[in-house]
Each structure stands twice: as structure tokens, then as C-alpha cells.
Amino acid sequence: MKKAWEFLGAVALGLGIFLLFVTLQSVRSGALAIPDQLSLFTTIFLGIFIEAAPFLLLGTLASGIVEIFFSREKLQRFIPRNPLLGALAGGLMGLFFPVCECGVVPLTRRLFKKGLPPSIGVAFLLASPVLNPIVIASTYAAYGWGPMLWLRIGLSLVIAVTVGLIFSIQKYPWWLLRPGSMSPVMGASEDTPETTPQLPFSTRLRHVLQLAADEFFEMGRYLIIGAMLAALMQTFIPQSALLALGAGPFSSIIVMILLAVILSICSTVDAFVSLAFVGTFTSGSILAFLVFGPMVDIKSTLMYLQVFRKKTVVYLILLPLLMTILAGVFLNYYTQF
Known about the structure:
- The protein is mostly helical.
- It has one domain (2-237).
- It is 72% helix and 0% strand.
- The longest helix has 36 residues, at 34-69.
């Protein structure tokens, strides 16, 4: 109940900030009437939220299933001991857990709680928004069996595995996480899976749904705030100003990365959005949009901050950013597709 009130409080706070911002902006510029700005903001916000909420729910359901049906011992039997194999396994886990950038955060936190090593968890966190069947299918529908599909999959996996290997130096996941983020939710005990196998399946299923609902309210407030921030930026920052910078081999990459962060589009549909920039922007910049956006945007960054320490979040943003820019510049200068 407390998290539900916090969830509603996030909605009220976001709406209050928006109305204040619109009022000040309208008084200063007079460019749009308040009803027009409100209508544009509402359309963008609802588009982002409705797009992302089902996948956040899917991720919290998967988190609840992991908590109730999988013990630490069961999970440890499937974990590779080699850091490289572990990071590679984490990068490919998205094929079996089809969650986007919203749903992967609570699921990764739950897997860390079960003893998943940092290299596997970080690789899964970064790769699964692209390396899952739904996103692969949508990218194929947009681009076909062409180089954009394979480069998106390959570059996302390389970045995720590399960052996972870097984090493998840290042996204990709780040193990466915020204090208290490993604690159980809704009173679930640490030994829940070990004490519930004798319970009826219906009882365990009810526990899964309770945990999923609690985590949905917990993470959902950050989804709402992130969607509101993204909608505010799209409402008041003219995209024409960004598009004017998109001609150069380097500046185009920066602009498309900024667009990916600002738009905060779910990875399941971002391939179709990127089609609008084909022919105007370089191939490397479009690839950067498709690779970096699912790893880092406004809403996912807020969720990262809810789970990880600030220093960890900085690395989770900067390492993929630098590797994405490097790959995009290389493609722009040395390849044509």
C-alpha cells in the first residue's frame, strides 16, 4: 500500500512540475497556447508509458517467478565460472527472458539477490533489451536480413560482454548496488524458494503475483517520472535543432544518441522509428540510435539509480556510450551500407 501511494505521488509530482513549467514557458515565449502544449505532452507521455508498462509488468512477473520458484542453489548450477563465458551467457540470456529496458532492471536485481555474478548480471542488463526474440523480430520487420539487423545484434552483444567483463573485477554484486536494494520486498524472506516448494502451486503463484505487483509499483513510479521528463524534452526542445546537426560523421552520431535518450522509446518499436532517419542520417548514427537507446535512456537511468550506486550508474552509461560512439564513427568512415 505504501508503494502504491508513492506511485500515485510520483504522478502528482510530475504533473505539478509540468504545469508549472508550461506556465512559465508560455508566459516567456507565447509560442504555444497551454492547451496545445498540454495536448502534445499528454500524447507523448501516454505513448511512452503505454509502450513500456506491459514490458515492465513482464519483467516484474519474471522477477517474482525467479524469487519463488528458483533457489540460490538451482541458479548457481547454471552459472559459468569463467568470467568471459559468464558475460557471454549473460548477454545471451535475453533470448530466454524477452524483457525490454524497463522490465530487465527489476529482474536483474532479483538475479543479483540470488547470487548472480556481476559480469553475468551487467551483460544481461545491457544486452537483453536488444537480444530478445521480440526486438530481433521487430528489427527484421523494419530492415530485413540486412547489415543493420546483424550489426545491431553483434554490437549490442560485444558492448554488453565487454562491460560485463569489466565489472567481473568486482566479485560481490552488493558492492555495486544501493544499500537496501538487495532487501526482500513485501516481507519476502531470503529463503522463500527453499520454504515454499511444499506449498500448493496456487499459493506460490499468488506469492509471485504479490511480488510482481509490489515491484511494479516500486519501479513504475520511475517509469512515470522518466516518461514525463522525456515528454517534456520532446515538447519544448525543437527536433529541427537537433536534426540540423546530423550531417557529419561524428555529429550525426551524437545527435542520434541524444534523440534516443530524449525519446526514450521502447526497444520493441524503436527500429520502426529509426526508419524515419534513413537517408538523412549516416548509417553509423542510426546504428548508434538502435544500440545505445535500449541500454540507456531517461526512464532506464532513473531505474538504474533506484538499484545501483551512483558510481556504478556512471560506468553503466559512459562505457556503452564511448564504445557506441567509437563503433559508429568507424562505420561512418570505413564502411558503406
